Amino acid sequence: MPKPKRGFARADRVADQIQRDLAELLRKGLKDPRAGWVTITAVQVARDYSHAKVFYTVMDSATRDATQAALEHSAGYLRSELGRNLQMFTTPQLVFVYDESIERGMRMDQLLAQVAREDAARQGESDEGAPSPPADEAGEARE
Predict the structure, then answer these.
(1) pLDDT digits (tens), the chain, 143 positions
(2) Pair 43, 16: CB distance under 8 Å
(3) Domain 9-99 - what CATH class?
(4) Helix, strand, coil tally for the chain in percent (to 5)
(5) Which of 23, 50, 82, 128 is most deeply buried (CB count within 10 A of its CB)?
(6) Do 72 and 96 touch, CB atoms closer than 8 A?
(7) Could you state, in order of their start, the residue ranges of all structural domains in the chain?
(8) Which letter does DSSP use for residue 29 in this model?
């Protein structure tokens, strides 16, 4: 997910720090088994630093709802731990949003591969009826 051009360098630095700290907290500090393999893909912080949208993805899409519930349940704990690490007056409220961009990208890759296979199959069909390239004196085909 590309970062928008805003001109607020501090907000970007805060978002990056929150992303790093949350990733570490999820890896080491969160004991909820529902939040398995979570990857924090991006964080967007409001201008007044009161809210932070945390975009995440999971390895197994079947556990998506359970992971969302676990993250929402542990948002207070994660916020308090962030408050200890961040040197800010106010620690932002955390809102967890599932990042579908990776799934969309994988789906686009599948569609492009399917189109390439269909084109190759069509190309193979049209080559069967096409005349072969002319041969030179040695009997080898020229291209």
Answers:
(1) 555 565 558 888 889 999 999 988 888 877 777 777 888 999 999 988 899 999 998 887 778 888 888 889 888 988 998 988 888 888 899 999 998 887 788 889 999 999 999 888 888 877 665 555 555 555 555 55
(2) yes
(3) alpha beta
(4) 50, 15, 30
(5) 82
(6) yes
(7) 9-99
(8) I
